[in-house]
Design a protein that fits this description.
The complex is a heterodimer of chains A (619) and B (219). Chain A is 33% helix and 14% strand. Chain A is α/β, with parallel strands linked by helices. Chain A has a 6-stranded mixed sheet with strand order 2-1-3-4-5-6. In chain A, helix 5 links the parallel strand 3 and strand 4. In chain A, helix 6 packs antiparallel against helix 7 and helix 17 crosses helix 18. Chain A is globular, with a radius of gyration of 24 Å. The termini of chain A are far apart. In chain B, helix 1 crosses helix 2. The longest helix of chain B has 15 residues. Chain B is built from 4 helices and 10 strands. In chain B, the strands form 2 sheets. In chain B, strands 1, 2, 3, 4, 5, 8, 9 and 10 form an 8-stranded mixed sheet that branches. A two-stranded antiparallel ribbon of chain B has the order 6-7. Chain B has 2 domains: 99 residues, Alpha-Beta Plaits (2-Layer Sandwich), CATH 3.30.70; 105 residues, 2-Layer Sandwich (Pseudouridine synthase). The chains are: A alpha/beta (619), B alpha+beta (219).
Chain lengths: 619, 219
């Protein structure tokens, strides 16, 4: 609901449909009849936030509880923000139009480090004090956060009252229930937070003290008031019975992923050594084809979407992918619904899968070999061979595709200039494969897009101790690829190294970075994930002012025995396993994926998922 | 196969979506409603719908229409209304379904109510300003075209008008040329007024009715 005041300005901004709510399936409740009001904030624009599956799941789940009303809040784009500041309009939730400060809970999902500045900016715009210690002891305006960036919460520890570690479906509701009880008993925020810390999967940063060595590394991390020394993540063990919405809010304006999204499994069997998601979501847990089929159908019927995307970290690794596609295509053809399968692995693109998705829509093909040379792919444990990639491309070309996108990373551990040049060579090999495929599309040319992003070492991966390449080295590598490309059929894109550097600083930062974040907020930093707004220069000036060296976080090789800022958080994967994986990387050795062999990472302790499946080679 | 015209209002939150977004929203609602509408037969079949006259973002529409082809000629019009309303956001309400009597291309005029207000300008004065502007022999505005800016006279596109004074706004009732050839958007009148007086106005625009070249209501 939009206030009259906001309406006065809506025609002065780009895409006003972002700021009005009123979509199909939006949940409106009577605020006098609910006990807990939760503002679910996505620290980016409406189009980005509305595409996020986690938000859809939790929005529906919260609202399925009669005493909770969950509403949505997005970061206003810069033109709208300017108007809101000028006319003193506080950031409001789309459903009720009430300002952030009216909410019991203000929850953020943290999908990427560069959205941290938006989180603080949104609090400020909403009239809520940015720091936890500025918000008082009253039981309201509790700022909570979750999502992948919560796995190293330290750079934003001063601003968030509590973090949800792991999957939110159960723990969120436990916290809401406790809140309700605490309010009935007249308890204050401090007491409530202390009680929350006893719930598994909740991290209350204000209950811990950190001490540092003289060299800047962490000396100790000490809990107070009996808070747990280690915070264990929460995991949904049965995907078939865990909550999934049968309904999405259907946006009025076009969003980034404007379609129904169906989760098919969580986790990834592969264990690529750079990939955080591959470790923090372990173990792999699948939904049954029956559940997926029923959920897909309900979603399409309730939203009117004519496209459903099967979502996971690596769709072709779904153990029953072909039976699933068969089940889906039984009704999707008649209902004129198309199926898209993003996140296909190079080795998972078979004729059978191709024919099933081709029956409805032909979208572009995207593969991520991640590295150009075989040695490099072994280092990162990608487990994709050159001939597999060429075979896959040949299959696609024979099937009529003429464009292929290839994603790579530069700056990986142990990488040489030869490895970098092999990225260009691999692109060339794909072009050659096109012309060597006898039945490729007649009279059409091939288009190969090679994209290279810069490697960012992330917590809870075997590369968490690795230094990131410095910006000049990354630039040199980008240049080297450009010089190694010979064909006009190849388009080369690369990701800005400046943003990757800042991402690396915050991904593995500690609590001392809170000072930087606070200052960034004061200076009005926002939308750092957007090239329109990002300026590394401005950030470096802040680091300078605070006397903090960002290279300490991004470019320093850390010791295996060092206390890392996130060591008190347990994602199920043992640190000793990550060390072993890192050492294997240095020896160019791969590790088989979970379905081939158990590598004893530690995730079996959850008692479910792939760890307990029968392995094919043991049958 | 029968051509039918679906009549609806566009207001509330839906006032702020563009024509393209309206199109998408309508197609999704048609798809969800399972009304037997003819679909395009391309690689990616979707319900086929056309709009005789798109509505600008920000305008309220009280008598808007969309044409579809009904596969089942006996399908009841009431059912279309009910089913579509169940599938549409609240800002879009279908209130009637009729046969498409006139061809979509026959739209030649549209009537609007433009409520104008401005900081520190009494509505009586806005009325006088409007009357002066519309009494001019020509109303020149700058229009963006492929060859840069060009000056256009929109006065010939003003078919009729009347101005009334209200407590906190001036209401302009105006009939303007509409359709693919000589379309005049009421925002152009507001821009011309702003240019003339140097003030900034808030305009709340409602499109009321469509007409053919003989000023018969479009049906």
């Amino acid at each position: 609901m939009v206030s009259k005041e906001v309406e006065k300005y809506l025609l002065k901004v780009q895409k006003p449909g972002r700021y009005v709510g009123g979509e199909l399936n939006e949940v409106i409740k009577d605020k006098r009849e609910v006990e807990v009001r939760f503002a679910f904030c996505f620290p980016d624009t409406y189009e980005v936030g509305m595409s996020h599956l986690g938000m859809k799941i939790l929005y529906s789940q919260f609202n399925s509880v009669p005493y909770i009303w969950c509403e949505r809040v997005f970061a206003p784009w810069v033109d709208m923000e300017e108007i809101m500041r000028e006319h003193h309009i506080p950031l409001y939730a789309l459903e009720s139009g009430d300002p952030l400060s009216a909410f019991d809970f203000i929850g953020f999902t943290l999908q990427y480090e560069l959205s941290f500045s938006n989180m603080l900016n949104m609090l400020k715009l909403g009239g809520v004090a940015v720091r936890t210690d500025g918000r008082g002891d009253e039981l309201k305006n509790i700022v909570v956060a979750g999502g992948p960036c919560a796995c190293n919460p330290e750079p934003i520890a001063d601003f968030v009252d509590l973090f949800f570690i792991g999957e939110g479906e159960e723990v969120d509701l436990e916290v809401m229930e406790l809140f309700r009880k605490c309010r009935a008993e007249g308890r204050g925020k401090r007491e409530f937070l202390r009680m929350c810390a006893d719930i598994e999967g909740v991290y209350v940063p204000s209950l811990y003290d950190v001490a540092y060595h003289e060299d800047g590394t962490i000396k100790s991390f000490t809990p107070r008031d009996g808070a747990p020394a280690v915070i264990h993540k929460r995991v949904m063990t049965d995907m078939d019975s865990s909550y999934y919405p049968d309904n999405f809010v259907v946006p009025l304006v076009e969003i980034v992923h404007d379609r129904a999204v169906q989760e098919i499994f969580r986790g990834c069997i592969r264990g690529c050594r750079f990939c955080q998601a591959g470790f923090i979501y372990r173990p792999v847990r699948e939904k049954s084809p029956e559940t997926i089929n029923a959920q897909c159908r309900a979603l399409c019927e309730n939203t009117g979407y004519d496209e459903v995307s099967l979502s996971s970290l690596s769709s072709s690794d779904y153990s029953q992918i072909v039976p699933l596609l068969e089940k889906l295509t039984e009704w999707t053809g008649e209902e004129k619904v198309s199926i898209s399968l993003p996140s296909l692995r190079v080795d998972g693109f078979t004729d059978e899968i191709m024919n099933k998705i081709k029956t409805v829509r032909k979208s572009g093909l995207t593969f991520a070999p991640e590295a150009g040379s075989q040695r490099m792919r072994d280092v990162i444990n990608k487990n994709v061979r050159h001939d597999e990639l060429m075979q896959t491309c040949a299959t696609a070309f024979a099937g009529g595709w003429t464009t292929v996108k290839l994603y790579f990373m530069i700056g990986l551990p142990t990488e040489t200039m030869d490895d970098v040049a092999d990225i260009a060579h691999l692109g060339q090999d794909v072009v050659d494969t096109y012309y060597n495929t006898p039945n490729h599309a007649k009279g059409k040319s091939v288009r190969v897009t090679v994209s290279a992003s810069s490697f960012v070492p992330k917590p809870f991966t075997p590369f968490q101790w690795e230094p990131q390449d410095t910006i000049p080295v990354l630039h040199e590598k980008q240049k080297h690829i450009i010089e190694s490309i010979r064909s006009k059929k190849i388009t080369f894109n690369y990701h800005d190294a400046d943003t990757s550097f800042l991402e690396a600083v915050f991904a593995r930062g500690d609590r001392r970075l809170c000072k930087i974040m606070e200052l960034a907020c004061e200076r009005g930093f926002h939308f750092d994930g957007w090239s329109d707004c990002f300026s590394l220069e401005k950030w470096l000036a802040l680091f300078d002012e605070c006397g903090i060296d960002p290279a300490f976080y991004a470019n320093r090789r850390r010791g295996f025995d060092e206390i890392l800022p996130w060591d008190h958080i347990d994602y199920g994967v043992k640190k000793s396993f990550l060390v072993k994986e890192c050492q294997k990387a240095y020896e160019n050795q791969t590790t088989p994926h979970c379905r081939l062999e158990c590598s004893h990472c530690g995730a079996a302790k959850y008692g479910k998922g792939v760890c307990f499946e029968k392995r094919q080679n043991l049958v | 196969m029968k051509n039918v015209r679906i009549w609806f209002k566009k207001d509330g939150a839906c006032r702020y979506i563009s024509h393209l977004d309206l199109n998408r929203t309508m197609l999704r609602a048609l798809h969800k409603s399972k009304i037997p509408i003819w679909h395009t037969e391309g690689f990616n079949p979707h319900p086929f719908a056309t709009f005789p006259l798109p509505l600008s973002l920000g305008f309220r529409g009280v008598n808007e229409c969309m044409d579809v082809r009904l596969e089942d000629e006996n399908y009841s019009f009431e059912e279309i209304t009910d089913k579509l309303n169940a599938c549409l956001p609240l800002g879009i309400r279908v209130f009637d379904v009729t046969e498409a009597v006139m061809k979509a291309g026959k739209v030649a005029f549209a009537s609007f109510t433009v409520k104008l207000s401005a900081n520190k300008i009494p509505s009586g004065l806005i009325c006088r300003q409007l009357n002066e502007l519309l009494a001019q022999d020509e109303i020149l505005i700058e229009k963006k075209s492929k060859k840069g800016m060009k000056t256009v006279d929109i006065k010939p596109g003003v078919k009729s008008f009347s101005v009334t004074e209200h407590f906190d706004f001036a209401a302009l009732e105006v009939v303007l040329s509409a359709g693919s050839s000589d379309n005049v958007n009421p925002n152009l009148l507001v821009a011309a007024l702003e240019k003339k007086t140097g003030a900034e106005y808030e305009a709340d625009v409602t499109r009321n009715d469509l007409y053919n070249a003989d000023m018969e209501p479009f049906r």
